[in-house]
Design a protein that fits this description.
Layout lengths: L29 H10 L11 H12 L5 H9 L6 E2 L4 E3 L6 E2 H4 L7 H5 L4 E7 L4 E6 L9 E4 L3 E5 L2 H10 L6
Antiparallel strand pairs: 1-2, 2-4, 3-4, 4-5, 5-6, 6-7
Helix pairs in contact: 1-6
């Protein structure tokens, strides 16, 4: 038997083409924006099958009421298994969603976010946890805001809908 090695020439003069920029419908709800963003490359994740039970469990476990747009996302669009998208975020399945103390062992520097950490739920991370995003479910003025948690913490969107719009236009805009 003769063995052969085949070499293929690769053009390294230009980077691979980027997909066209995504422009989300500004009137679409967050779950629809994310579903459209994922579907454009033909690889939309399968939604979580027992989402209603998972959502009810999250609300009971943490004693919270989920913001409506985030709740709708979890019920209709959140992936059955963690889903790594073209923006390099891993979107967590509802069963993986955790609050800050349950997921993140480091102390928080931002006192406002730290005071509400038990009611802030992680839902996605970037490049295998370089940083992650959490939504505030604590009653008050920060309810529904999305925070970036990493070496420091800060609010990056006023709602899950605003987060979805910004992320799908440019994932780095919410970092």
């Amino acid at each position: 038997m003769v063995s052969m090695t085949v070499f293929v020439a690769v053009d390294r003069t230009s980077p691979p083409p980027k997909p066209p920029a995504f422009e989300p419908d500004p009137l679409a709800p967050a779950h629809a924006v994310l579903a459209s963003f994922w579907a454009r490359r033909g690889d939309c994740p399968t939604p979580y099958p027992d989402a209603e039970d998972a959502v009810r469990d999250l609300e009971q476990r943490y004693g919270i009421v989920l913001p409506k747009d985030f709740r709708t996302y979890l019920l209709t669009t959140a992936p059955a298994r963690d889903y790594w998208d073209e923006g390099d975020a891993t979107w967590w399945s509802p069963e993986r969603v955790r609050n800050i103390p349950d997921e993140y062992e480091h102390s928080l520097k931002n006192g406002v976010i730290a005071a509400q950490a038990a009611c802030c739920l992680f839902f996605a991370d970037y490049l295998i946890w370089c940083w992650a995003w959490a939504i505030c479910c604590a009653p008050g003025e920060d309810y529904g805001k999305v925070a970036l948690i990493s070496v420091g913490e800060d609010w990056v969107a006023d709602s899950f809908g605003d987060f979805a719009q910004a992320y799908t236009r440019d994932p780095m805009s919410v970092c």
